Structures are given as C-alpha cells and as structure tokens.
Amino acid sequence: MNRIKCLMIIGTIFVLITGTLAHFVYGWTGKNQIAGLFTPVNESIWEHMKLLFFPMLLYTFYAIIKFDGEGSCLISSICFGILIGTFLIPALYYAYTSVLGKGVLIVDIGIFVLSVIIAFFIAYKFTLSCRLQPYTLILAALVYILFVCFLIFTYNPPDLAVFADPTAD
C-alpha cells in the first residue's frame, strides 16, 4: 500500500475516533470555554461540524510533518477534503430532515462517518492528481476563515437555523 493511501486510511480512523470522542469533551471538562471552542457546546448542526473539522485539521498538521516536503500536493488536497467533509454534514442533514421532517440519531452518526470517509477519499484522489496544488493558498485561507468562524460563532452564534440548538428550551 502506498504511503499516501496509508496516511489517508489512518487519518480516516483518527478523525472517526477523535471526532466521536470530541462530541463529549465539552461536558467532560465541566463546560470549559476553551474546550468549547474546538468541540460542540450544543446539539446544533454548526457545532457538529466541529467533529470533522478540528480532528482533520489536527491530522493535517501531522501529515505535513510526516511528509516534510514530499507531499507537495497534500496541503491543498487535505484542505479541500476538510472543506468538503465539513460542509457535507449540514448538506446531508438538511437533505434527509427535509424529507423525514425530523432528525434521526443513527442517520446523523452515519452522516458523520460518511462525511469523514468522503473527505479523506477526496483528499487522497486530489493528492494523487495534484490538480489542486495551484489553489493551495486559497484553500488554506478558506480553512483558516472557517477556523475563525468556529471560534467566533461558538459563543456568539448568528440567528440562523444552522446555529440553533434543537435541545434548547
């Protein structure tokens, strides 16, 4: 198995495990505000996007260090994967809830798993083709903007449905 494929498989497993654990970190830390910046503070779709975004971003830094210049197409590809995977979560959630009229926990879990798999599959394919390399700066900037949005909107969410906590009274 080539090194890139192995890196992506390990990344998928890493994000599935850390993303799942991240769902509980805010509660486990006694609602620590710093932990809340990187893990869900409520059950909104926006907060659940963090379950893929931050673990995959963390794994990106590992991958960059691991390949140390060898994977010149890696950064742009993983950044694209992060963006696609993160935004697949609300897209798929709103697609199925518009049909069913409500959320279903097992489907939500499946959406997370599917989004992670798709994110890494896309990152793998684009790393091999190197087609996104000219867009590295743009893709990294978009990931950075999303990072900042997560930090800002965690405790100051706009009044939009994606930020609404369905469990709030």
Structural class estimated from helices and strands: mainly alpha
Helix-strand string: HHHHHH
Shape: globular
Strand content: under 5%
Number of helices: 6
Q: Mind describing the biggest β-sheet?
A: none
Q: Stretches where pLDDT falls below 50 for ≥5 residues?
A: none
User: What's the structural domain tally?
Assistant: 1
Radius of gyration in whole Å, from Cα? Answer: 16 Å
Global mean pLDDT: 94
Number of strands: 0
Helix content, binned percent: over 70%
For the record, give the distance between the C-alpha atoms at the N and C termini, rounded to a whole number.
Answer: 51 Å
Summarize, please.
With 169 residues, the protein is an all-alpha fold. It has helices spanning 3-28, 33-38, 45-67, 74-100, 105-129, 136-155.
Please give a structural write-up.
There is one protein chain. The chain has 169 residues and is mainly α. It contains six helices and no strands. The N and C termini lie far apart (51 Å).
Note the topology.
Blueprint: H1 3-28, H2 33-38, H3 45-67, H4 74-100, H5 105-129, H6 136-155
Helix pairs in contact: 1-3, 1-5, 3-4, 4-5, 4-6
Fill in the keyword field for this structure.
single chain, mainly alpha, 0% strand, globular, 6 helices, 169 residues
